[in-house]
Amino acid sequence: MPTQSDKRPMKKRRSAPGRPARLSRELIADAALELVASGTLVDLTMRTLAGRLEATPMALYKHVAGRDELAALVSTRRSLAL
Length: 82
Hints:
With 82 residues, this protein is mainly alpha-helical. The chain has a single domain (23-81), classed as Arc Repressor Mutant, subunit A. The chain is 52% helix and 0% strand. It is built from five helices and no strands. It has helices at residues 4-7, 25-37, 46-52, 57-60, 67-81. The longest helix is centred in the last third of the chain and has 15 residues, at 67-81.
């Protein structure tokens, strides 16, 4: 049986007030591409990338799902740069 709370309209989720995001998918991809240029794709880790961006590794996951998606993003950007 539906309850009163089931009948309430869903509220729109608002972004948290405060400073704007310092990281972006583009910024992460550019930094990752720089790291790969100085080494190999195997050397690219979320931890080393986060260190380069002065962020925590978990902050990167808001923009990329994981290392596989990051590697695909780097590969795409690398091929576009050629």
